[in-house]
DNA sequence: TTGAAAGCGGTACCAT
DNA sequence: ATGGTACCGCTTTCAA
């Protein structure tokens, strides 16, 4: 059933039906009611494809994130959930595109076939070909994360440098002198993954500032890798008394490694880092950490994108968040 | 740039371009090459909206799941991830719809506006108005989960009754006589959420069969609720020596509650249940559990849907999975 | 082997 | 206040 059918039954023209429904032109109260009645009776809804073709807008936004391979981190998934809900609140649908690079078929479809009005990019790298590609095209998009030269772009990001530094200072203030850094997998670091780089950077600088002895590690995104990583840490320097991690998926494994090594948290060993609070609260003792406000970030990204879609010439805006460290139960004075 | 532009530059008609690209009609090798060259030069890709309008297919599938409110469980999110990737492998895009009931705007859009060719439904209830709605319309869909009368439908599900029963038998075999059941939140149970119902059912029947003393609890989807729930369990019956849970989000809290109560797992208390293996491996000691093969289920759902889309008259098919219990480290003999 | 043209289902301009 | 119609960009039938 199409708009012509409605027009016929209501005894008016197709354009009148269109206007009655969109309100873009005054329609006499009488005919409007008649049309509405037919519409209700038949449960008519205009075809999204036809409408998109006619007015050049799809009312859909694309959400681009790398294929997980094995599994997604909790943080990624929190982003997805919050983006979808925020978009629904604005009557936008969300099309998912598992694309890590701009050559992915799904990414090409999204843009080339004009399936979406704008895009939100997740898992940003410092040099990100997807972001560059979109910028070059002038395609409306917002990044969750911050590229190396993002000052003039649209994004919502976390100041990972500051967050990692804050974790170091927290441990240093508690008297820890020998600490480790547990990063995301080496492959992500090498490919220029933003949080891994900036986090490592912030950790290293802050530790140097405080004159700490440090070791840094990459670690797979799973508990088994976390456990193995912790064993290496204690093997490499048994005097280590604390660690900072960005790797929430490994967190459970890190704790398990500590337990196996007979180190009590937080009495013998302090753990902190940057993770979504869902994970911070899952482990025992609960993790003192800079909580990633994933839900808020997703919402902000949608708001930014909707704003940008509404005013194509608006100057770039962004949100750079620095959530505070939530004191929970996983850190304590060194050598207590 | 559109197909007309390509036609002009290649010196052929629009239909020839269309056929050259789709291969639905023979085109002389010579013109085909000429067209392809223009296409490559200009990076032409046909508009998805126009194509959808013309041939009535969107090459998009809808993924319907309830809005999270607070946050998604790991299992839900694993489903989403695997569905998206499986769909991408078949060159389908995935449109997300956060809809718990068939009156949700987003759900209406998906169907009414014909945005998708088919749909995958998550978080099935025994009586599910979304599933009924789709069935009535004859709209191609596949459920992840099994309604009360699903025998003749398209779905991929877990035999929660059998899984919960298996957990009970596992504990009973180890000599446990007084055990508890930690279900999903009461609101989900009341609304007829499938896994909560069938799981409770399987637990209750199996426990009766084995003559066990049981108590059943509903528990919020978060660590704090898990901890509170465990306190209630030990308060209600301090002699309880084991529990079965479907609530992965509460798992960390259950463990914490046990630790606080001074019960060592698995020496003093055994824990088991039905959860995604990511969670089972995160906690220490790792959870002996029936692992929910979320990734496989998402893939199967997509396969089923693609099959159904290809052959509209195909008879309903389904997969009812009964994953085995993975023995890890959270259960042990009673009173050891 | 190729072209012309009629849809697909809307929107919006130009008339009346 | 309403109607007629061109157009959005592609697919597919019909003709040549």
From TrEMBL, chains A, B:
Q: Domain of life of the organism in this record?
A: Bacteria
Which Gene3D superfamilies does the annotation name?
3.40.50.2300, lambda repressor-like DNA-binding domains (1.10.260.40)
Keyword set, alphabetical order: DNA-binding, Transcription, Transcription regulation
The opening ranks of the lineage are: Bacteria, Bacillati, Actinomycetota, Actinomycetes, Kitasatosporales
| Location of the HTH lacI-type domain | 1-55
Instruction: Please state what the protein is called.
Output: LacI family transcriptional regulator
Q: Which InterPro entries match?
A: HTH_LacI, LacI/GalR-like_sensor, Lambda_DNA-bd_dom_sf, Peripla_BP_I
Write out the GO MF terms: DNA-binding transcription factor activity; transcription cis-regulatory region binding
């Amino acid at each position: 059933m199409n708009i012509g059918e409605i027009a016929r039954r209501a005894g008016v023209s197709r354009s009148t039906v269109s206007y009655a429904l969109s309100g873009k032109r005054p329609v006499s109260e009488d005919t409007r009611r008649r049309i509405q009645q037919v519409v209700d009776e038949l449960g008519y809804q205009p075809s999204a494809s036809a409408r998109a073709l006619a007015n050049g807008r799809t009312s859909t936004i694309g959400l681009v994130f790398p294929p997980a391979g094995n599994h997604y981190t909790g943080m990624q998934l929190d982003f997805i959930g919050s983006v979808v809900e925020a978009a629904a609140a604005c009557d936008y649908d969300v099309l998912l595109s598992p694309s890590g690079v701009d050559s992915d078929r799904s990414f090409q479809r999204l843009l080339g076939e004009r399936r979406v009005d704008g895009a939100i990019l997740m898992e940003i790298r410092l040099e990100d070909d997807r972001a560059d590609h979109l910028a070059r095209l002038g395609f409306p998009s917002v990044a969750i994360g911050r590229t190396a030269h993002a000052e003039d772009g649209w994004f919502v990001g976390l100041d990972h440098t500051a967050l990692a530094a804050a974790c170091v200072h927290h441990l240093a203030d508690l008297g820890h002198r020998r600490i480790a850094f547990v990063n995301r997998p080496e492959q992500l670091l090498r490919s220029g993954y933003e949080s891994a780089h900036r986090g490592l950077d912030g950790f290293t600088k802050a530790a140097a500032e405080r004159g700490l002895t440090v070791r840094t590690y990459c670690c797979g995104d799973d508990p088994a890798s976390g456990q193995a990583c912790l064993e290496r840490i204690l093997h490499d320097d048994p005097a280590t008394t604390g660690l900072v991690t960005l790797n929430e998926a490994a967190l459970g494994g890190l704790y398990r490694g500590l337990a196996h090594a007979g180190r009590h948290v937080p009495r013998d060993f302090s753990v902190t880092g940057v993770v979504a609070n869902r994970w911070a609260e899952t482990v025992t003792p609960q993790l003192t950490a800079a909580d990633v406000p994933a839900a808020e970030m997703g919402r902000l990204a949608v708001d930014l994108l909707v704003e940008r879609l509404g005013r194509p010439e608006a100057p770039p805006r962004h949100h750079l968040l620095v959530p505070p460290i939530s004191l929970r139960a996983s850190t304590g004075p060194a050598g207590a």
